[in-house]
Automatic annotation (TrEMBL):
It comes from Vibrio agarivorans. This is DUF3624 domain-containing protein. The chain crosses the membrane at residues 21-39, 51-73. Keywords: Membrane, Transmembrane, Transmembrane helix. Pfam families: DUF3624. InterPro entries: DUF3624 (IPR022072).
Length: 80
């Protein structure tokens, strides 16, 4: 990543500060779930289906963590 927040080395200093990362996670999440829905929902036990579901959950959890930090944790820290 090329932004200042993403070039830092500590995970908690990056999370919730980079709009570019959140945009990429959103696109990856939508693409992953879209691929799963259109191609693999009929075969939920295939390895491809399981891999897409796991990737989709990982993208969603990381995006949720970004949004939680951006809209709840960081604004609360700023008020102190």
């Amino acid at each position: 990543m090329s932004c200042q927040n993403c070039q830092q080395h500590w995970f908690w200093k990056k999370i919730g500060r980079c709009q570019r990362c959140m945009d990429q996670l959103t696109v990856l999440s939508v693409a992953c779930w879209g691929l799963w829905w259109f191609f693999f929902r009929d075969e939920p036990k295939s390895i491809e289906s399981i891999a897409l579901v796991m990737a989709g959950f990982a993208f969603n959890v990381l995006l949720a963590l970004h949004l939680l930090m951006k809209f709840i944790v960081l604004p609360m820290r700023g008020k102190k």
